[in-house]
Amino acid sequence: MRKLLVTGGAGFIGSNFVRRTIEQHPDYQVAVFDKLTYAGNLDNLVSVSENANYKFVRGDIADRGAVARALEANAIDTVVNFAAETHVDRSILSPDAFIEANSRGTYVLLNESHKHGVERFLHVSTDEVYGSIPEGFFREGDALEPNSPYAASKASGDLMARAYYVTYGLNTVVTRGSNTYGPYQYPEKLLPLFISNAIDNEPLPLYGDGMQVRDWLHVDDHCAGIDLVLHQGEPGEVYNLGGENERHNLDVIRGMLNIMGKPESLIRPVEDRPGHDRRYALDNAKVGALGWSHAVSFEQGLERTIRWYEENQWWWRKIKSGEYEAYYKAQYSQRLSS
Ligand code: NAD
Ligand code: TYD
């Protein structure tokens, strides 16, 4: 493993992974391949942009020719696929882009990787492919019962990675991470949305009763887990990466407001998300056997994340205009006015 194609590397987790890889593996060459959708942002990669081992290629994983050119031109031996449409609420408003990127795009990327002799292919997936679990923890062999168009389109990518391993012998490995948070996360997801709204004393639209449970994983831990599985995971296998930090949404938000010194009156209960999964929880035994566990406690990670959004308003204020405003209106204006 020396020449990596990191698809979706201009997004939240991908850009954190690229910065980490360049620092931790100075002998690797990293080509980021990203479509730069609304969620892709070259500001996320400024700190590595001058590094001789880094290169950016704009392209779509569903575009066969563009993928083939990127693999050939950079003599790629390893693919790490972060590229995806990632927001559940947007998948409910308009699923098409999710099928195109997450289902068809993953297939095209797998197929071209196989044709071009890629030696290792890590597909980054999510705990949401399992669906909701009232108690206990999902293990890697459990049935996939995705409930949102986002989760279903991701599950289809996981299954295609499996098929390319079994049928064509492509050396695939899949990670399923839990809810990830940290710097450079687009302010549509719960924490960056609520932190940035709270900085501006704007309402925090909490879906339903706020008693849904998510398992929070700091992006540094998620990237360390992906790196470990990339190097040590068994071909054809799937590895859960759970944060071991289950929290009710309401508790997360109260903790956040407390750190920020903002009042709970900012919380505005609004109409729930349709098909809203009640609880996600992962069994980490398999990745634990490889030597991974989280290093960042939720309390520490939350505080660091809040400080980052407070200190880097240049980063998210630019985003909160244009396309973002149109999405925000479609998703929240009726909810917040009723
Ligand atoms: P993100 O939305 O911040 O970034 C996605 C990136 O993919 C963007 O840079 C975007 O431009 C790019 N992209 C989208 N479609 C593309 C296409 N067709 N071709 C090339 N590039 C494309 O997402 P994220 O939160 O960083 O998530 C990265 C991956 O991790 C996704 O596969 C997601 O399903 C998975 N994941 C995310 C979480 C989470 O909590 N954020 C948890 C588990 C797994
Ligand atoms: P989100 O960050 O969208 O991640 P996911 O849906 O992938 O878990 O949401 C995390 C939780 O926060 C989820 O239970 C939905 C809830 N939520 C709200 O209550 N209000 C919001 O405005 C958003 C975006 C999320």
In the CATH hierarchy, what is the superfamily of the largest domain?
A: NAD(P)-binding Rossmann-like Domain
What's the assembly state of these chains?
single chain
**CATH class category of the largest domain:** Alpha Beta
Query: The CATH topology of the largest domain, please?
Result: Rossmann fold
The N- and C-terminal alpha carbons lie at a distance of 54 Å
Tell me what the CATH architecture of the largest domain is. 3-Layer(aba) Sandwich
Uncertain runs:
none
Query: How would you spell out the order of helices and strands?
Result: EHEEHEHHEHEEHEEEHEEHEHHHH
Explained architecture:
- It is a single chain.
- The chain is α/β, with parallel strands linked by helices.
- It has two domains: 3-179 and 218-241, 3-Layer(aba) Sandwich (Rossmann fold), CATH 3.40.50.720; 181-214 and 245-275 and 297-325, UDP-galactose 4-epimerase, domain 1, CATH 3.90.25.10.
- It contains twelve helices and 13 strands.
- The chain has helices spanning 12-24, 64-73, 88-93, 96-115, 149-168, 190-199, 219-232, 249-260, 285-289, 298-311, 313-319, 323-337, and strands spanning 3-7, 29-34, 54-58, 78-81, 120-126, 172-177, 180-181, 204-207, 213-215, 217-218, 238-241, 246-248, 267-270.
- The strands form four sheets. The chain has a seven-stranded parallel β-sheet, with helices on both faces. It has a two-stranded parallel sheet with strand order 7-10.
- Helix 5 links the parallel strand 5 and strand 6 (172-177).
- Helix 2 (64-73) packs across helix 4 (96-115).
- The longest helix has 20 residues, at 96-115.
- The chain is globular.
- It starts with a strand and ends with a helix.
- 46% of the residues are buried.
- The mean pLDDT is 98.
- The structure holds nicotinamide-adenine-dinucleotide and thymidine-5'-diphosphate.
